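Q: Convert this sequence to structure tokens.
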Amino acid sequence: MVLVLTLVAVIMGGILAFVNHLTEGPIAEQKEKALADGIKAVMACNDLKVAKTDEVKQNDAKGKEMTFTIYQIQDAQGKDLGAAVESTTMGFGGDLKVLVGFDPEGKILGYTLLEHAETPGLGAKADKWFQKDQKGDIIGKDPKEPLTVSKDGGQVDAITASTITSRAFLLAINNAYNAYKTTPVDGETGATKQE
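A:
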């Protein structure tokens, strides 16, 4: 009996490992496509290229080290368009991963949620709530002064019944901005290219 159960467990483990191996490639391709589409969406431009990718590590207010991925973006002629920054914070239901586009001056061009575990119908509304012409519109704002919800004395309307998600989302935006502003811009990707 023990031998049969062990044999069944080994066979099932092998099948699971095989299926996992088969799906790794398509899952990675889907993530790459979602990222490429997300960069185009947040930069509000279809004709662009990623000139450079940086990883920046910073500590948050609580001292926890966070990693940001910064994609320096150029148009087809090589002109600096700014950057798209991946930022992750803890939302109400789990990690909230946001991709934010900034122009060279630091104004928000757009954003998209890459991953979240927020409550459907409440916190999941963050994908639309803060977009242009919506109730919590942050597009075009300059987060030099950190963006906060109006409940905390800030200038952004929180998602109704989802203040925790709204705070987490704005923290992700503020952290992304801080990472973007600390990234050195070299002569090849900078707006003021030197000859």
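The chain has three helices and five strands.
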